[in-house]
Design a protein that fits this description.
The chain is 39% helix and 28% strand. Strands 2-1-3-4 form a 4-stranded mixed sheet, with helices on one face. Helix 1 links the parallel strand 1 and strand 2. It is globular. By secondary structure, it is an alpha+beta fold.
């Protein structure tokens, strides 16, 4: 099952803007996509490993490899289109 990780921070305004879309994606794609949220302030090593420089940073993984990423806030429609693309590939 592909995984989408949302790298975010409590102080990040754009992160709060897309949080409802990420939450909706976790229920809409239940069983097809695993969704995880990682607070970069509490997980600096992991954020550094994936070179997270701006937030929100959404990374999509398949078989342990990053296959797509989104940096910054985007509309829900765009997020769901990207998820569909990852699932179809």
């Amino acid at each position: 099952v592909p995984v989408m990780i949302d790298f975010w921070a409590t102080w990040c305004g754009p992160c709060r803007m897309i949080a409802p879309f990420v939450e909706e994606a976790s229920t809409t794609y239940d069983g097809k996509l695993k969704v995880a949220k990682i607070d970069v302030d509490n997980n600096q090593v992991l954020a550094s490993k994936y070179a997270v420089m701006s937030m929100p940073a959404l990374m999509f993984f398949k078989n342990g490899n990053v296959v797509d990423q989104i940096i910054g806030a985007i509309p829900k429609k765009t997020l769901f289109e990207r998820i569909d693309k990852v699932l179809a590939s």
